[in-house]
Amino acid sequence: MISSYYKSKNNDFLLAHGNCLKILEEFDFKFDMIFADPPYFLSNGGMSLQSGKVVCVDKGDWDKGKTQEEIMAFNMEWLKLCRDKLKDGGTIWISGTYHNIFSVANCLTALGYKILNVITWQKTNPPANISCRFFTYSTEFIIWARKFKKIPHVFNYNTMKALNNGKQMTDVWRIPAIGRWEKTCGKHPTQKPLRLLTRIILASTNHTDWILDPFCGSSTTGIAANLCGRRYAGIELKAEYCALSQNRREEIENTDGRMYLQNHIEDLNIYDHENTVNENMDYYGTPPF
User: Has this prediction a pTM greater than 0.70?
Assistant: First the structure.
């Protein structure tokens, strides 16, 4: 068994500290869904505008630029490991920008995944383009793929339709980037909004399902999973972000903290499921770690 950095009181939130390429090889467990926010390889000295201030976009050594060959090799390695950790009917979601998403798509196809959709996440509050020499970046892409081409996957079509005023939900999602209410315990430089992960989880998993995030950062995936009544295992390379993840999870042990987040997530408020929040989720088999 892998030594956990942190486990929640009812064991629905598990966190391991280390390199996911090594840790994924050390346990044998099949997940219902994986969400991955791998490096975009953008930390090359660029500048951006945040809260009216010009800031450097460098996020850390883990996000430093690589050659196309190195990026392809990295994506092939972690996607192969993740495929081994998916149930036969499981799906994977991968976020990215044009810097890495085409490599990811090519690797998915080469490894035998079936790409189901490419979601365009349109940010309603993108940072301004300070150079004024090209269009403002306001989107990211999220590939949704299943493990096998011919084995059915979970898609909660009726739930997504209900969240979209009774109409079929399209592959363009207008969701703001993280707000102040998501930073009460601190902030990760590539933190995804809870609204985004909640929609992904409600779309492609069922109550008590297990979700893996191999590049978990501040564990937005895990917080969203638990708010939706799902179970979570995350892997994070940096100890400081493991501590942030733990603080965020402990925040929702408090009913007021949980309700504070839930009240900000429109999809979760619309979602009508009697087991959305369930503190007594029984394990099946041996937990991941």
Answer: yes
**Identity of the residue numbered 273:** H
For 132-152, the pLDDT digits (tens) are 898 999 999 999 999 999 999
Burial of 255 (0-12, 13-18, 19+ CB in 10 A): exposed
What ranges make up the beta strands (E) of the chain? 6-7, 13-17, 31-36, 47-50, 53-56, 86-96, 114-122, 139-146, 172-174, 210-213, 231-236
Query: 274 pLDDT exceeds 60?
Result: no
Query: Rounded to an integer, what distance in angstroms lies between the CA atom of residue 120 and that of residue 32?
Result: 23
Q: How far apart (Å, rounded) are the C-alpha atoms in residues 142 and 195?
A: 14
Nearest to 209 by CA among 228, 237, 185: 228
CA distances from 172 to 35, 97, 120, 122 (A): 18, 15, 5, 7
**Strand 114-122 with 172-174, pairing:** parallel
Collapsed DSSP state (helix, strand, coil) of residue 193? coil
Domain boundaries, given as residue ranges, for the chain: 6-270
CB burial of residue 38 (10 Å; 0-12, 13-18, 19+): buried
CA distances from 69 to 72, 73, 154 (A): 5, 6, 34
* DSSP class of 61: G
For residues 189 and 158, is the Cβ–Cβ distance under 8 A? no
- Please give the CATH topology (third level) of the domain spanning 6-270: Rossmann fold (3.40.50)
| pLDDT, tens digit (0-9, with 9 covering 90-100), for 3-60 | 889 999 999 999 999 999 999 999 999 999 999 999 988 766 555 556 566 555 666 6
pLDDT in tens, 205-253: 999 999 999 999 999 999 999 999 999 999 999 999 999 999 999 999 9
